Amino acid sequence: MNNIQLESVLNELLSPHQIKDYCPNGLQVEGKSEVKKIITGVTACQALIDRAISEQADALLVHHGFFWKGEPAEIRGMKYRRIKALIENGINLYAYHLPLDVHPTLGNNAKLAELLDIEVLGGLEEGNPNSVAIYGQLAQPLSGEELAARLSITLHREPLHISDNAPQEIKTVGWCTGGGQDFIELAANKGLDAFISGEISERTVHISRELGIHYFSAGHHATERYGIKSLGDYLAEKNNLDVEFIDIDNPV
């Protein structure tokens, strides 16, 4: 497949033009025109780029790419080495951030719901059809300890669980993969029993305690493995491309 055609396929699927983001979505670094082999992964770190080179990939498709809002514009140091490696090896870099988080079937939030057996009921951000945080209902009520254990087994990472003043039984859950801890107040105001995200801030603990809602910090990387993998699987199935997911370990 032509590299520009692949971007069009991804854009049609993920609709990045509908979402205000902190980085450009789509083809961030142009490489060879013909794409046959794609490596997918969470973040375009040097280790993942090196694996793409060793696998003789034509493209790298990630959730966390480059050129974030507020970062220095200069291409030097670590950024230079990463981009240089991509260009010298003709590897196209495609990145989709929030559009991948919110996709209703392939996205990070949707895949986490599948893994945890949660029925999606809607978005937490009222009036926003592309709400980054969503909420739903567990198939069967769980205690806080039981949900923590399910997260640990499913994501292969023990979550940090804040449960002071929270209900004994969890029926309703809000969640936002990655760095979505500040949506906890929306979840509490909606009367949900628990909120799950990838990260935690110092303030999150106090909010959880004072608003009486369970909070689970389950890992930014751990909660965002599954969207990019499912996107790659979709491309392989629908477009007859050779796609391989590579998980670069990250404990955070």
From TrEMBL:
<keyword id="KW-0479">Metal-binding</keyword>
<dbReference type="Pfam" id="PF01784">
    <property type="entry name" value="DUF34_NIF3"/>
</dbReference>
<dbReference type="InterPro" id="IPR036069">
    <property type="entry name" value="DUF34/NIF3_sf"/>
</dbReference>
<comment type="similarity">
    <text>Belongs to the GTP cyclohydrolase I type 2/NIF3 family.</text>
</comment>
<protein>
    <submittedName>
        <fullName>Nif3-like dinuclear metal center hexameric protein</fullName>
    </submittedName>
</protein>
<dbReference type="InterPro" id="IPR002678">
    <property type="entry name" value="DUF34/NIF3"/>
</dbReference>
